[in-house]
């Protein structure tokens, strides 16, 4: 691990960013030319003390998970991310279709979406990053681990919990859409991948999944209109728009409601309230 080069690299990348670049307010009279250390730490979901030690050349070797968070927080390109990993003694991540790395272009769009729920998902319906409005509507999905990170897996493995977000009448349609998306991802990634692992795990525990999987429906699309069910505010009608990355391995999902509608009022209420309970 090259601590000197790591410290310089982190400092230069931090100085090159402005608060507006990452969706933060500028505020009055900033002493630093770029982001503050505490702002980078906040974006990377780590302690300010830990990040400070990295810049001061006295931190421990960061894990792959920490480096992925730093790459996202500093809006690194793939080449810059690979360089960061190598500085810390790790191999550069595989640039496969399934990756935790979120493209800077998609992040820049997400950074500017504060008033409406928005999140980025992978081929396997794993939420990679989401804004506060999204957390208020559907909860924090980024902290999940293992196969539970996949919304496809959770739909069939934990139906009593996962399906509460949708009306019962919409469950069959949502199940078909998720299996169609998994079939498409499986075709891209192959059987010896996380997609294959999900198929194997669900085949062993969900007859409903097996029946849908054997229908060989292949489709990766998002319903343009859906009804979400909030545990305290009830039904919220939203329009769903998807912006795909260049290689279509990730999608930015934006949920909006018709202006002046009851659902728009509920989304505004959630935005103001945040993740507090009603």
Automatic annotation (TrEMBL):
PROSITE patterns: HTH_CROC1
Highest taxon of source: Bacteria
UniProt-listed InterPro entries: Cro/C1-type_HTH (IPR001387), Lambda_DNA-bd_dom_sf (IPR010982), MLTR_LBD (IPR041413)
Alphabetized Gene3D superfamilies for the sequence: 3.30.450.180, lambda repressor-like DNA-binding domains
Record domain HTH cro/C1-type: where: 34-81
Name this polypeptide is given: Helix-turn-helix transcriptional regulator
